[in-house]
Amino acid sequence: MPRYSTRIAKIVNSSLYRHTLGAAVESRWGRLILLAGVPLVWLIALHIGPIYQMLKISLLSHYPVQPGVESHFTLANYRLFFSEALYFSPLIKSFIFATLATASTLIVVYPVAYYVAKVVRPEGRSKALLLLLVPFWAGELIRTFSVIMLLANRGAVNVLLREIGLIDRPIPMLYTSFSLGFGLVYLICLYMLLPLYSAIEKIPTQYLDAAADLGAGPFTRFRKIILPLSKDGIVSGCCLVFLTCIGVFATPMMLGGPNTVLFPETISGFFHGASDKWPVGAAFALIMLVTALIAAGIFMRLVGGRKRSAI
Amino acid sequence: MNKIITSRRTALKLLGGGAAALAMPHIIRPIPAWAQNGVLNITTYDKFLPKEFLDKFQKDTGIEVRIRLTDDQGKQYNLLTAEGANPSTDIVTVAGHRYSQFISAKLLQPLDTGKIANWKNLNTAYQDAPWARVDGNLWGLPILAGYEGLARNVDYVKDAPSWDVMFDPQYKGQTSYIVSDFMTIVMQYLGHDGDFVSYVDKADVAQKATNEARDFLIKQKDMVRKYYEAGSEVQQMFINEDIYLAHSWSGPAAKLIMDGHPIQLSVPKEGTFGFCYTLNIVNNAPNAENAYKLLNAVLETPEVGAAMTRQSGYSSTINGVGDLLNDREKLASTLPQEEIERIIFFSSVNRDMKNEMIDRATAEVKAA
């Protein structure tokens, strides 16, 4: 300790510190800039900047601008979305799909989070969590390919079913709503698991013991104590999963079938297509962003409600 | 803490130093990596340029080759357009029928064949092909030729003389295609001009024909297992037996045949379209001279062309490649004469109208 104190004292008393950091810390604005500067630059440069750029492109008549072509500001790209059902229906489909995927993820992951947070002994929880997190060290594409290897006609599931004599012809599971839903739940369950685990782990075990002593059965204990006290985790987990599902692009392309074309694929068509439709793609992307945020906001308002004690 | 008293001079020094530090990146502007001497940036499809060839080229010339992969002509066009007069790539891989789009946007520079000493090694059929010359200039080095074929798993589909088989109810849910590409074939199948050449100044006729193909594909949607985008996807679906039939570029299907899978590729009686991939030097390419050295090296020996064919499945345009392929490789890249005669090379005429109508119809089919 004395050694560190001496070093810190040396730094604090150095002229460099006194004239730069020390001076900054002395003033209120200096402290504010020091604390908020890096996060603000990060937020503006990496998040708001690209969105601003997309907003700008979405208001242009042509982009990328080619030689001999004049580009001007217009709202036509936004009007296009509202003028044709062709573009409206994939967005609705995306919302329905994201809602179903969020609900499925919650149903699948909640018992897992509860098991790790309350049933596993405290000393084993970090190991259990680690085991659950290991698959997520692999990239999204690798995990998507693993789903393909699992569900294909000659994939592991069909081979197993055929080997044990349950089927004689493969069940077409891949490139359907089922494979897309299964893949999505598998790919994004981490976003649900961590908030849920964090919320459930904080619930004092004494509450459950007291309820049991008072005659509450397992379902009543779950309904009256665990569910209300884990509401924060449910709300944040659902919002994270919903917003991820709305914007997910590669997984529906790789696992979805002809009837599961979602809005991100429609948007990508404008960027990859032969004609210069970047402004339309940018406008549609912003429409998706805004509507998804509104939906998440409504959900948080309705389910999250005001902060209050559950008991 | 003691109160720090900063003099005006110290404060000014600090401000000046801070401003200089912040401005430094703008004052010292290093040459971007992609514009340095001894570097060549190539945007191309996966498995087009063989690794052994690139390694040898780098060793012989000292030029570092940096490959950027693409899987779509439209994507490549859009990215190149976005970079404008300062491209970060020297060579792009354009399909011959997309020339007009790239040339009218001033994205390519005319090819000076005088700088390619090995030009004579290119098959004469490609040295000055009708589709290759636009505005009096040649624009690229043809490297691989292909066509849009009907691929089938011969264990399950014995014969397929017509595109009809793609709509045969017994193969319901077992077919696949790239919507935009297959729509041109369907237009041809329905008796229209899938390449739009005859629709110049006849937008209403073209729209009617496109709508008919679109409605047909929507009606047949339950035949489809998946709309794919990249050649690797159709290969994967065939290997996993998720599909038995597909409209496929010849390269990916031929590659499966070379690898011993029970796949056959044919040109049905209604015909199909052919295309040629070329390596093109980008307008304002930062390393154009290095690009010419690579084009010359590609043509140096038929081994390079043979390796390209083995990797991609497409037919090489370089003389002498056929002698280097084994029987299975030859079988994969060879068609009976009557089927060859059914291939029409895509034209670059009226591409804007075609792109506009096909893009929209594709979105409509997918959303239906």
Helical coverage of chain A, percent range: over 70%
Using the CA coordinates, give the radius of gyration of chain A.
26 Å
Order of helices and strands of chain B: HEHEHEHHEEEEHHEHEHEEHHEHHEH
Overall 3D form of chain A? globular
- Give the N-terminus to C-terminus distance of chain B in angstroms: 71 Å
Shape of chain B: globular
**What is the makeup of the main sheet of chain B?**
11 strands, mixed
By oligomeric state, this entry counts as heterodimer
Structural class call of chain B reads alpha/beta
Helical percentage of chain B: 25-40%
Cα distance, first to last residue of chain A? 45 Å
- The low-pLDDT segments of chain A are none
Helix segment tally of chain B = 14
Largest two-chain interface: A-B, 43 and 43 residues
Number of helices of chain A: 16
Task: Tell me the number of strands of chain A.
Answer: 0
| Largest β-sheet summary of chain A | none
What do you see in this structure?
The complex is a heterodimer of chains A (311) and B (368). Chain A is mostly helical. Chain A has helices at residues 2-13, 15-19, 21-26, 28-58, 76-83, 85-119, 122-133, 140-151, 156-163, 177-201, 205-213, 218-229, 231-247, 250-255, 263-272, 278-304. Chain A has 16 helices and no strands. Chain A is globular, with a radius of gyration of 26 Å. The model of chain A has no long low-confidence stretch (mean pLDDT 88). By secondary structure, chain B is an alpha/beta fold. In chain B, strands 1, 2, 3, 6, 7, 8, 9, 10, 11, 12 and 13 form an eleven-stranded mixed sheet that branches. In chain B, a hairpin with a 2-residue loop joins strand 4 and strand 5 (137-138). Chain B is globular, with a radius of gyration of 25 Å. Classes of the chains: A mainly alpha (311), B alpha/beta (368). At the A-B interface, helix 3, helix 6 and helix 15 of A face helix 3, strand 8, helix 8 and helix 14 of B.
